[in-house]
Amino acid sequence: MGFGIYIHIPFCKQKCFYCDFASTAKKVDETLYEQYINALCQEITMYQALFPDICIDTIYFGGGTPSILPPDLIIRALNIVKANFALNSDIEITLEANPGTVDEQKLQYLYQNGINRLSFGVQAVQNDLLQKIGRIHTIKEAEMAIEMAQKIGFKNISMDLMYGLPGQTLEMLKEAVSWAVNKNIQHISIYGLQIEENTVFGRLYDQGKLILPSEDESEMMYDYLTEQLPKYNYNRYEISNFAKIGYESRHNLAYWQDKFYLGLGAGAHGYYNQKRVQNPFDIDEYIKKYEQKTKDKFKPKEGFKLFYLPSRGFCEIGTTKDNSMLMIYQMCGDGKFWRDFATVFAQMLEIKKLGTICIRENIKAYIRFWGYKITKKEPFNDGSFIYYAENKEGKKARISPVHMHDDITRISYYVTWDI
Predict the structure, then answer these.
(1) Tell me, what DSSP letter sits at residue 99?
(2) pLDDT tens, residue by residue, 226-281
């Protein structure tokens, strides 16, 4: 069964004046970002136990401002999804981005690691109007972000535009449309301003201090958008969305088609088994909830962290004292999964080697357990052998015999895996 996944990133640099989404603009220590992603990864693995056989058609990182996070944290969450679920071969993976929070290096990293669709929140093309609505970017930054993304290789880019904004005229909206359709993007979303409680605009409106276009003016803006965008081959396929043929947002369509999706992260909504679910919005509460789920009666070795994932078993991960190698102990369950899981950590730490101890004599079965095949063996000085192995991706491993537990008759193996 095909599912979508919505992943909520609730952090912003500044809260837009109209926004009532589940997000926070409080200044936070970046360690909170990491704690949040760790909790998110635990939630992902929890859902794997509930839905072990589903195939993921779309993944959508929304917010908040997902692009405010260091890109390796975004990719860590994406890699955990990949490790836990089957993915459609043409999966759509979208990241919402504020043009003021990206640069070429960040976009390059995201593109190289699987993000294949970007949604830029542009909203308007006049800098004074952007400031009036609380946006942190300039129109120049928006232009640069789109150009960088296209240069890097993104071929599916969306842009948000808004109408009915304070101080906005029809001529200003026409300028925005002209600007947008000349950027050679594939998708445009349009949103009329809604005044929500507990927002800056909501408070100003209640105080009579917010001057908005008249209802007739807003209707003219809406009519202009719906009439003009199709002239530039942006076909309307949903209330607020226009796309060139073949570039409709599959994730958005899934909502309208009543398809199931998992909602991950603080405040996220999900829909499956004919019911809707929602996570608590409080970020600290969300983190504590999933930290608690990882606790177990087993105590990990000093300097190691114990992981338990439903249907995957236990694994301890730590580094050697000189940080030259990531070590894994007590594997059980899906060996290939645990190796991929540990590889994510090693890559984040810029460690090039992965090490394990195999307390088994049947080394061939153990290597197959990790998705490898022995390609060569050489005699060792005590009558045993050194083995060499390789997986389908061409990654290599070296398996050396060791004696353990003060029993020279009991041979185990020390395995070094290339990442």
Answers:
(1) G
(2) 999 999 999 999 889 999 999 999 999 998 888 999 999 999 999 998 888 888 88
> Which residues 6+ apart lie within 8 Å of 230 measured at CB?
236, 242
Closest CA to 159 of 220, 241, 89, 221: 241
Q: Kindly indicate the confidence band of residue 381, based on its pLDDT and cuts at 50, 70 and 90.
A: low
Gyration radius from the chain CA atoms: 25
Q: Has residue 419 got a pLDDT over 80?
A: no
Q: Cα torsion for 345, 375, 82, 342, to the nearest 10°? A: -20
Residues 6+ away with beta carbon under 8 Å from 141: 99, 100
User: Which residues, other chains included, contact 380 with Cβ-Cβ below 8 Å and sequence gap of 6+?
Assistant: 386, 400, 401
Q: Is 301 helix (H, G, I), strand (E, B) or coil?
A: coil
The dihedral of CA 287, 290, 291, 292: what is its sign?
positive
Task: Give yes or no for a cis peptide into 64 (omega within 30° of 0).
Answer: yes
H or E stretch including 29?
none
Cα distance between residue 265 and residue 287, in whole Å: 9
Banded pLDDT at 322 (limits 50, 70, 90)? low
- Choose among 62, 73, 87, 81: nearest CA to 31: 73
Sign of CA dihedral 125, 126, 132, 138: positive
Q: How far apart are the first and last CA of the chain?
A: 32
Cα–Cα distances (Å) from 269 to 202, 266, 281, 337, in that order, read 24, 9, 10, 28
Alpha carbon distance 292, 288 (integer Å): 6
Lateral strand order in the sheet of 269-272? 235-238, 241-243, 187-192, 157-163, 117-123, 86-97, 55-63, 2-9, 261-264, 269-272, 275-278
Residue type, 396: K
